[in-house]
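Hi U.,

Before I forget, here's the chain from the pilot set. I'm dumping it here mostly so it's searchable later in email.
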Amino acid sequence: MSALEARIVRRIGGLDLDVSMRIEPGQTVALLGPNGAGKSTTVGALSGADFDGATSGTEIVLGTRTLEGVDGFVRPERRRIGVVFQDALLLEHLSVVDNIAFPVRCSGASKRASRSTAHSWLERLGMSAVAERRPADLSGGEAQRVAIARALAAEPEMLLLDEPLSALDVSSRSEVRRMLRTHLDAFGGPRLLVTHDPSDAFLLADRLDVLEAGRITQSGSPDDIRRAPATPYVAALAGTNMFTGRAEAGSVLMVHHDHTLTIADTTLQGDVLVTVHPTA
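Structure:
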């Protein structure tokens, strides 16, 4: 399987986006950030669906193929990237099995072969009973499972998940998250999960990239992010309280607070960020 190597530069309205990332085969990276940080623009650039605001400096390489850069631009349907959106976006006039078969058919497979592939995915998901239903007859959780199967059925080189659980209720969310984790682990290509929910990121991702105001402000494993958040936004994600202070000789004078903390590290000097977990 191929790795993703990308630098995405976009200037759209007030957004100044400049993001670099590498995702290894078999690795799940979660891209988190507040509204307006540039997550949707990143999704659009990687999928090829959004070329607006493209700026010199962008280069997206998947394996040996350059999808965007000085050598040109590859159209979305030729990128071999499976995409799952938050609202499933199933084709309402097609049955469940034909929705899953659709991208397989578009890749050149026969109708019989594509439907056979779709049925095998429905069996894996335990959803054979809904094969001939229309999307309008599915629950939210069922529709999202179909969308995930559709993305994987075409054997993409990369999987891009854009807020795949945000439209689900609590019970469906837990069930689909477990199913998604199983299929992410079985998919050998790079996986990018775009979300604003830290629970999805911490439970599904190997690495978290935090996007704020168009820039990656912190990158690391879920444990790294929990233990040492680098910004107030990341601290809020991790469920900790963050303060600024100045360390000297085993003490930290808290800025904006009339308190001094005693710390174990007597060698630490200068400006610091102090995080305190609510249970401490």
